[in-house]
């Protein structure tokens, strides 16, 4: 992570080694939140080596015992430390359309708003301007680990990876694959999609940045045929890559997939037959049907549920909760973050007030806010493990 990878909030700087005194919140186990009002946090070589209540002990002596020297940073009144948030599903190119499209269902929304916008990312200047803003906004909201969808354009997708690397964010970046049932202005030939995916993966890895990794990204089963999905599954296995896609976001989508893949028993079975249901896959949606059992459960496949459906649709909540005993990750998409611990850059210092864009807001009465913690963490804690960062 470098000798001085840091996050800055006000006057508090998080460096590769240091000692921090004040209140903090963290979680070490599923469905558990620990709140410490008078704590000490010791970071050595980029990793948290101690995070517990101070209990009247001498901070300098404790730090020295852990091989860390120097004066502690004391948080100001109204500040607290907490692990960085994780966003398991971010459509970076859709940032300019935020708030549009509530008059459309999914497939019409894609055709009317999303595909025309995403086609513009063939323009490198436009892509750079938007992606810089997206990464700044995510980091400003405390999201230190994100899983990004880009577009079908290799060069602009690489530009997103560069923006993330410059900002010091940890991220998975996916060049989107789409070869059927798409508008002519936003589509790929199958071999082109495969060739560009190889190029994208190799280019991201050539950056030699451990914080930024490629992820195989078939958009969903309507936009990709079985041949493309199988070949993408082969790439993921050969190169040991994560996979992200969508599943069962609404009734129209589910019916369309049923018509396209009549040989498959359900939506999840499509991905299973394509070889995409690995322990490194995360599927966004599953609001209208269960994420799938059998191979999905055995493979440890993850599931991403959006914040608003989690609150508004009982069926989505039921299906997501049902997946947990099978061992699959459950986690949140945009505007729905989670806590994680270990890397120093994942701790941010926040003033009391509303936590911008976050489902679990931080109020002046910070302990009261975390009465929401059980459902919050049960939806999200496992995601960092499912993508290899737990």
UniProtKB/TrEMBL annotation:
Q: What GO MF terms are annotated?
A: guanine deaminase activity; zinc ion binding
- Signal peptide residue numbers: none
Amidohydrolase-related domain location is 81-279
| UniProt keyword terms in alphabetical order | Hydrolase, Metal-binding, Zinc
Compositional bias annotation for Basic residues: 316-337
Pfam families for this protein = Amidohydro_1
The record's Gene Ontology cellular component field reads: cytosol
Q: Does the keyword Cytoplasm apply?
A: no
Keyword Hydrolase annotated: yes
Its BP terms in the Gene Ontology are: guanine metabolic process
Question: Residues annotated as region Disordered?
Answer: 315-337
> Which Gene3D superfamilies does the UniProt record give?
Metal-dependent hydrolases
**What cofactor requirement does the entry state?**
Zn(2+)
Name under which the protein is recorded: Guanine deaminase isoform X3
């Amino acid at each position: 992570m470098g000798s001085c990878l840091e996050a800055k909030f006000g006057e508090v700087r998080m460096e590769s080694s240091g000692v921090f005194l004040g209140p903090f919140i963290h979680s070490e186990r599923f469905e558990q939140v620990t709140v410490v009002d008078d704590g000490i946090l010791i970071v050595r070589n980029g990793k948290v080596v101690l995070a517990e209540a101070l209990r009247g002990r001498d901070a300098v002596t404790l730090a020295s015992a852990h091989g860390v020297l120097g004066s502690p940073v004391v948080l100001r009144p109204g500040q607290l430390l907490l692990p960085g948030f994780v966003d398991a599903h971010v459509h970076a190119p859709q940032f300019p359309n935020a708030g549009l499209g509530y008059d459309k269902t999914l497939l019409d929304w894609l055709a009317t708003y999303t595909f025309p916008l995403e086609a513009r990312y063939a323009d490198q200047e436009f892509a750079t301007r938007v992606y810089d803003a997206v990464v700044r906004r995510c980091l400003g909201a405390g999201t230190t680990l994100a899983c990004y969808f880009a577009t079908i354009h290799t060069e602009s997708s690489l530009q997103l990876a560069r923006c993330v690397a410059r900002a010091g964010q940890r991220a998975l970046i996916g060049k989107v694959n789409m070869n059927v049932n798409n508008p002519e202005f936003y589509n790929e030939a199958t071999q082109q999609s495969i060739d560009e995916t190889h190029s994208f993966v190799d280019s991201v890895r050539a950056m030699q940045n451990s914080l930024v990794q490629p992820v195989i990204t078939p958009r969903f089963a309507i936009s990709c045929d079985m041949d493309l999905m199988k070949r993408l599954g082969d790439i993921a296995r050969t190169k040991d890559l994560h996979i992200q896609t969508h599943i069962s976001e609404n009734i129209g989508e589910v019916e369309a997939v049923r018509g396209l893949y009549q040989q498959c028993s359900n939506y999840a079975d499509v991905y299973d037959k394509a070889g995409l249901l690995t322990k490194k896959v995360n599927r966004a949606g599953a609001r209208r049907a269960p994420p799938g059992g059998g191979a999905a459960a055995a493979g440890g496949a993850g599931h991403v549920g959006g914040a608003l459906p989690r609150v508004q649709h009982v069926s989505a909540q039921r299906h997501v909760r049902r997946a947990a005993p099978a061992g699959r990750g459950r986690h949140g998409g945009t505007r729905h973050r989670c806590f994680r611990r270990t890397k120093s850059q994942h701790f941010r210092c926040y003033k009391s007030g509303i936590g911008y864009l976050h489902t679990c807001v931080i109020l002046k009465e910070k302990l009261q806010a975390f009465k929401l913690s059980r459902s919050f963490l049960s939806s999200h804690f496992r995601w960092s493990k499912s993508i290899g960062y737990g």
